[in-house]
UniProtKB/TrEMBL annotation:
NADPH binds at residue 52. SUPFAM superfamilies: 6-phosphogluconate dehydrogenase C-terminal domain-like (SSF48179), NAD(P)-binding Rossmann-fold domains (SSF51735). PANTHER family: PYRROLINE-5-CARBOXYLATE REDUCTASE, PYRROLINE-5-CARBOXYLATE REDUCTASE 3. This is Pyrroline-5-carboxylate reductase. Keywords: Amino-acid biosynthesis, Cytoplasm, NADP, Oxidoreductase, Proline biosynthesis. It is an enzyme of class 1 (oxidoreductase). The gene is proC. Its EC number is 1.5.1.2. Residues 157-261 form the Pyrroline-5-carboxylate reductase dimerisation domain. Catalyzes the reduction of 1-pyrroline-5-carboxylate (PCA) to L-proline. NADP(+) binds at residues 5-10, 65-68. GO terms for biological process: L-proline biosynthetic process.
Length: 264
């Protein structure tokens, strides 16, 4: 039995991914703070929505998907019900495995996960790290749960805040870029729908080329950048406006915010 505690946007994304991966609704428990949210989840997915305490008592694998600021109170609530033979997976930004372990009453194996919203289309990037009591079998179990909905990568926990900034928040950067490119298309006289189609397909195609070709992004970018052509003119403007430096600073700021969330 798997329980998802805190079925907000990311929790629901993980829930729907588990069901698409082949889990039966009666194998998954969910929790929700509001009664109307609980009723909606039960109706939409056919899963049983229970209290946090019941979920912690019943499930062999417990996924903590609440907001970082709510993690401390959740752990206080469920600690008496989490036995040492359970696996706890924490999916909250900035929350360390030691934070979770110190608030549980037994030496429970904890795996820290940072996933992202493309879990909704089975293209998530999930990074995992083991806590003090988690071994190879626990990492493998976490990978088995997450692999059907995307790619899974093991990293040292010291890199988790950077992963949160890079891939956890990453989809938002692409949506921001698409929004800007579509606005540029409208500025140039394109209908919004046509501009969105062109930009979306260009980004999808470029992402697949990058993933499947094995080439460095510089090589792929240079293949489009002819001497004296349109692409180099655009890139010169991006460099003039320090877009590269802005991305570096933005992702560093997201990393710093992840650390702040961990500190409350």
């Amino acid at each position: 039995m798997i329980a998802i505690l805190g079925t907000g946007k990311m929790g629901e994304a993980l829930l729907s991914g588990l069901l698409r991966a082949g889990f039966e609704p009666d194998e998954v428990l969910a929790t929700a703070r509001r009664p109307e949210r609980a009723a909606d989840l039960g109706k939409r997915y056919g899963v049983r929505v229970v209290t946090n305490a019941e979920a912690a008592r019943s499930a062999g694998t417990i996924i903590l998907a609440v907001k970082p600021q709510d993690m401390g109170s959740l752990l206080t609530e469920i600690a008496p019900h989490v036995a040492a033979d359970r696996l706890v997976i924490s999916a909250a930004a900035g929350i360390t495995t030691s934070f979770v372990e110190s608030r549980l009453e037994a030496d429970v194996p904890v795996v820290r996960v940072m996933s992202n919203t493309p879990v909704l289309v089975d293209e998530a990037m999930s990074v995992i790290s083991a806590g003090a009591h988690a071994g190879e079998e626990h990492l493998r179990l976490a990978e088995d749960l997450l692999r059907p909905v995307g790619k899974v990568l093991r990293i040292p926990e010291s890199q988790q805040d950077a992963a949160t900034a890079l891939s956890g928040s990453g989809p938002a950067y692409f949506f921001y870029l698409v929004e800007a490119m579509v606005d540029a298309g409208i500025l140039l006289g394109m209908p919004r729908a046509a501009a969105l189609d062109m930009v979306t397909q260009s980004i999808v195609g470029a992402a697949i080329m990058l993933r499947d070709s094995g080439e460095h992004p510089v090589i792929l970018r240079e293949a489009v950048t002819s001497p004296g052509g349109t692409t180099i003119a655009a890139i010169a403007e991006l460099e003039r406006h320090s877009v590269r430096a802005a991305f570096l600073a933005a992702i560093e700021a997201a990393r710093d915010r992840s650390r702040q969330l961990a500190g409350g």
